[in-house]
Amino acid sequence: MFDCVIVGGGIAGLQAAIQLGRYNHDVLVIDSGDGRSVLCNSYHNILGYPDGVSGEYLRSIGREHAGKLGVQFVLEKVEKVEKSGDGFAVSVHNGDIFEGKRLLFATGVMDRIPEIPSLYPCLGTSVYVCPDCDGYEIKDKMAIVLGSGNVGANMALTLYYWTKELAFVNHEKKNVDPELLHQLKEKGIRYYEEQIAEISEDNGQLKGVILKNGTVLEANHAFVAFGSNEVKSQLAKQLGVELLENKHIVVDPRSKKTNVENVWAAGDVVAHSEQVTIAMGDGSQAAIWIHKSLLE
Length: 296
Hints:
This protein has helices at residues 11-22, 36-39, 55-68, 131-134, 149-159, 178-186, 234-238, 276-295; strands at 2-7, 27-31, 72-75, 78-84, 87-92, 97-105, 109-110, 127-128, 143-147, 166-170, 190-192, 196-202, 205-211, 216-218, 222-225, 230-231, 263-265. It is of the alpha/beta class. The strands form four sheets. Strands 1, 2, 3, 4, 5, 6 and 17 form a seven-stranded mixed sheet that branches. Strands 8-15-9-10-11 form a five-stranded parallel sheet.
């Protein structure tokens, strides 16, 4: 039985694994390999990386770091989590079952992104999802919001802080409240209720967007805002972990402990601002309190 099983090998999960490894605990990280951080080709707001760093690179050096501390890894999708004796049994897709005295959910969030292949090489480099992370990247530049309904309209209005040259493409043609449409018009934000036909890019650099009606929008930067992102808290729910209406996990702010004994949560799946730097802090904080509980 492991001292702790961490479900999710993204930024929060890896930081927790490193901290627990430094406590000499037996730790297992189970990761499906398809988390949000895999998609981001460059984070720009992280201490020590002024020119940006990819999520995959952070994950790679994180796994290497944790591995040197004795942390074990399994690349699999967790299907079921249940209480087992004094700990927990974690079942993965291939039928294997792993047991842990403590459990940490670092399962994250997955953004809803349209299935346009040429969009993915741009994620993090010229197409972004978070205005707090990357609003600075479009300062005084032309930018397009690729979105849906009110969510996209609100993103465009948020980005107006950074640039006045904005266009919002309502790809799904969902309803936009009249008040929001009025604000878009008032601020001079161009509005297109039309599907995206093609994304033009060159080696991860956005060149423009072609709409199905033939309209061509030239820009080197864009934001995605479709809403209804998937909060991956289904496994935590199996154990009776308390969730908010938006499905984020409720934790104690100090310890990151959930309402279920010996279960913690960290990172984007927790109810707070979704940031890599916060996920790192969450992971460390959870690990410290997991260690304290193991000493007891």
